[in-house]
Design goal:
- The N terminus and C terminus are likely disordered.
- By secondary structure, the protein is mainly β.
- The chain is about 0% helix and about 45% strand.
- The chain contains 2 helices and 36 strands.
- The strands form 8 sheets. The protein has an 8-stranded antiparallel beta sheet with strand order 33-32-35-36-29-30-31-34, with no helix packed on it. A 4-stranded antiparallel beta sheet has the order 3-2-1-28, with no helix packed on it. A 4-stranded antiparallel beta sheet has the order 4-5-6-7, with no helix packed on it.
- Strand 2 and strand 3 form a beta hairpin.
- The two termini are about 15 Å apart.
- The longest helix is centred in the first third of the chain and has 5 residues.
- It folds into 2 domains: about 350 residues, 7 Propeller (Methylamine Dehydrogenase, Chain H); about 120 residues, Sandwich (Immunoglobulin-like).
- It is globular.
Amino acid sequence: MKPSKLLLPALGLAFLLSTAATTEAQSSKGDRVYTADQTSNTVSVIDPATQTLLGVIRLGDPVPGALSPLYKGALLVHGLGFSPDRRVLAVISIGSNSVTLIDTTTNRIKGTVYVGRSPHEGFFTPNGRELWVAVRGEDYVSVIDPAKMKELRRIKTANGPGMVLFRPDGRYAFVPSSFTPEFDVIDTATYRVIARLPQFSPFSPNLAVSKDGKEVWFTLKDTGKVQVVSGEPPFRILTTIDTGPITNHVALVDNANGKFAYVTVGGLNQIKVYRRGAEPRLIATIPTGDLPHGIWRSGDDKRVYVGLENSDAVLAIDTITTRVIATIPIGQTPQALVYVPGAVASGDGTANLVPLGIAGQAGHVELLPAAGTSTGARATISVNSLGLIDLLQIAAAGLEPGQEYALYLVDSLEKPRENRIALTKFTANPSGAAIAQAIGPLKSAVDGSSPAAENNPRQRYLIVTPSNGDRAVLQQRIQTAEDMSHRP
């Protein structure tokens, strides 16, 4: 798909891209930003000194090749962690139940460790001797020896551990759940759960620990909230904050202006910035591209980097001004993101990297409320090329909680019931949001090259209806002549 055929949201990813050329290089030499690209099964490698993509580490093949019974590569590359010496990157792949260890200087794969069903995120202990992986499809944290590349033990937790991070002194590990409303605290000396706290809701994918170890912030994707936990005994929930639908990841920043939390809210296409304290206070809202997901602070806390899941890009944000200073195109459907200071010990760090290739081919669509509806619903769609077929991902918000919906491809928005093809069904979560996927030859769904799109017989459109009804609640935004005139 040619770039000229992409439909961008009102904010305009193209506008953000124009800022990259004017960004000053402030990062230390050898720093790297990594993203786990779930659809392209790659790890994108960014040089924050120049705000450019250096290339990708290819860990697996795209679908449908990755579905072969003889397939040996990584599948659904999703989670990231790094060693205290910054020399090893751990990449967790959900579909292949694997943890891939990569040398950060050479970008070479050191080895792979296989764990239980659907691991999600993992991180090294502060002393670097162990790598703990949250095995979300089961009920334990897998403790791995990264030198011998083998599992040492399993720590039983609440069902569905979502992530694991440590207090800076290494005394405790914190584990929220993605299936059970329980937050666990583990004593790292005894490998035992010593505290079980009630989460507001079951689905937590991410957490962050403050530098002083006194605060742990964790996100609740299903209900659109963030909770703050004391990082010291007696462990307890300190506060609960309403953040918004599809609350994804959180990063804690300490800079000259104070102490802050940056929260990615995918359903609003925003980052919310809170001043931390006894009563966290919202101080800024930063518009982003489609579906912000992973986020991490730079080594000096002067920036945060954010992966845009439905825009296939990374934003760099200045934490003093809270402004976007660069946008970098990357691999498909980025999930976790980490900033690793001094990752490259010597050389330029580009060995064993490859270009994006077809992973750089994507289309982006905005869905708006259908005519005659009073809903506040909205959605973004990304269509990523897999070669002969495409993967479509929809992220919707403002829907009726608990309602099942269907996504259709139709020939006409004027007559949406005729010649429609069902692509996928999904149910809105308690905050009225949902994310769903479909696979097929779908590039025509984002062909917005003609401003008179309704007169183009080859053009097809996307609509969303309740699964038990025919009336559209969302429909594809049609590109106008004015949109065309604003293209760079």
